[in-house]
Design brief:
The chain is of the alpha/beta class. About 45% of the residues lie in helices and about 15% in strands. The chain is built from 13 helices and 13 strands. The strands form two sheets. A seven-stranded mixed beta sheet has the order 2-1-10-9-11-12-13, sandwiched between helices. A six-stranded mixed beta sheet has the order 6-5-3-4-7-8. Helix 12 (about 270-280) links the parallel strand 11 (about 265-270) and strand 12. Helix 2 (about 15-30) packs across helix 3, helix 3 (about 30-45) runs antiparallel to helix 4 and helix 3 runs parallel beside helix 10 (about 230-240). The longest helix has 18 residues, at about 60-75. It is globular. The chain starts with a helix and ends with a strand.
Length: about 325
Amino acid sequence: IRLFIALSKSGLLSLSSISQLLKAILKHGINLMTLLEFASNKYGEKVVLVDDSDELTYSELLKDSMQLARVLNDQYDVKPKQKIGILCRNHASLVKAIFALSRLGVNIYLINAEIGKVQLQQLVDKHQFDLFIYDDYFTSFVKESDIKQSFSIFELTGMLHSTTAKRPLQRTSTSNIILLTSGTTGTPKEVIHKPSLFNYLNPFIGMVQRLKLIQYNSGYIATPLYHGYGIAILFLFTVLGKKVVLSERFEVKNACELIQKHQVEIVTVVPLMIHKMLKENAADLSSLRCIASGGAVLSPNLVEEVQGTLGDVLYNLYG
């Protein structure tokens, strides 16, 4: 009851929203595509995603993600429970792949983009991925590893508008996202996240209320999507109807320019990122209303620097 009251007060729960959510569940099952279908019905032609080369509305992201799921199902025989590794930097094609693979009920392994060749081979040997998806930056890494079946993410997404899938998709409800630790103490270890309304509803409500996220329209995810922090913020922004800005790599000058260009109001960072941006060009950050810092210790000196320059906009996240 408390959760329903909190959702109602947040403006996230209404009879029409419940109806849309139930329709999405009946169509897809309980997976991330359900979330995207719900958001697409709610926000339609609103821009959801901007990366270094593309801009997508909610309806376009849903359409492309569903088509990619059909291509993977039809052309590459991707089935529920299979292990799919993804080694990509932040871009729209990665987002499409995550939604598509979740729709197919597979186990999605998001691999640290800073991984070395030796560690990558160790992961491949351990998990024996049924399919491995990578972006062009990692082509040499992947070609030198003993992987059964691998494809460039851009090769796959390039097939979206030229392939007609033949097999219908079945509803699925068992997709897992497996995040991998950095491996600083040895081989990267798995951290399994199973989509669950009850597991994530309390922190979801807490984030929305404490960071006042409903008030804002655009967010820049500067942190990597293969990290729990980045992927969680992506899903949170999607269901709230925010415009999400991504860039393949964090480069401080480019980050400042993106915030200024898109008049970003929310940014997710680790403390070193915001420190570097303040030193680079604090004027470009004037649109920020919420800086969500996580992933490392936030020093008192940096807190004072942010408050003195941008005002009371800094939030320290943990967990």
